[in-house]
Structures are given as structure tokens and as C-alpha cells.
Give the backbone structure.
Amino acid sequence: MNLPNKITVARICLIPLFLIIMFVPFGWGEVSIGSMSVPVAHLVGAIIFIVASSTDWIDGHLARKHNLVTNLGKFLDPLADKLLVSAALVSLVEFGLAPAWMVVIIISREFAVTGLRLLLAEGGEVSAAKMLGKIKMWAQVVAVSALLLHNWPFEFLSIPFDMIALWVAVIFTIVSGWDYFAKNKGVFANSK
């Protein structure tokens, strides 16, 4: 296993740590930022989520720069992204910070695209993430981060940046999913 793939696996390993921080009642209380308060668990969870998400860029950059792109990496990288974002989104619903219907749309798209990737792999093709998929991923990362931080620092400006970012993420999720299926619709004609 090369370094980029190890970084991807490390991203997957950060998911249980994120969930433990978010859900185990450590009794850390809240931190005051100006006139607003954010639970310390959410702040620490946001830091873990942002660090884990940033490894997506790092592993991809290293793989391309050092010619270490592998089929394992093409499979694991989007899987790690989907697991991380799904865990964070479900947590946000649990804490009442994100509407469940928006999260269902995002997670449903991820399942559907994963299923399509499995069909493509059955035919011997491993599909790397395309630009729309990368934009979708980063839109989701921005939205989740803003929601975990309870809209800080935009709360002071009375701008619902967290919800705007979530809407952008949902739109890119739908568009990128549609694009992925449209470009790979031939796989359904070839599957038995």
C-alpha cells in the first residue's frame, strides 16, 4: 500500500474518532465566541472533520505528483469521502443542525453512485472522481464545517451561510449524480 492510499485509510480511521467526540458525553460544555456559544464537542468534531477532509486533497495530490495512482486508490478515495460526509451529515441531523430530507438526498446520491461504480468495476472499469464530483465533495465539506461550527463566524453578520452552503451542496450533489449516470448509462445496457 503506497503513501496516498495510507492517507486515505487514515481518513477512514478518523471517522470513528469524529463520532466518539460528537456523541460520547464528555461534559466539555460550550465555548463562547462573542455572543454565541458552540458545544466544545462540535468544535473539536469540526476540527477533526476539516483535517480528515483536507487529506482528500493531500492523497490525490501525492498520487498524481508521484505517479502513484492505483485502482485501490480510485476505489478507496471516494469511499472514504462518502463515509466521512455521511457520518457527519447523520450527526448533524441528530443534533437538529441539518434537515433530514437534505441529508437523505445527499446520502442517496452517494449510494446510487457507489452502486454504479460497482457495475463499472464488474466490467473492468474503475472510475476516478470527475470535476463535478470534486466540486460536490468540497461543497459538502464547506456546508458540514459551517453547520458543525453553528454558522460561525457568519452568525455575527446574520447571514445563514451554513444553510446556503448546504443548499449549494445539495444542488451539486444532484447535478454531479445526474452527470455521472448520464455519462455511464451504457453500463445498464451491458449488465446482465
Observations:
- The first strand starts at residue 30 and ends at 33.
- The two ends are 33 Å apart (CA to CA).
- The helical segments are 3-23, 40-65, 71-94, 100-122, 131-148, 161-183, 186-190.
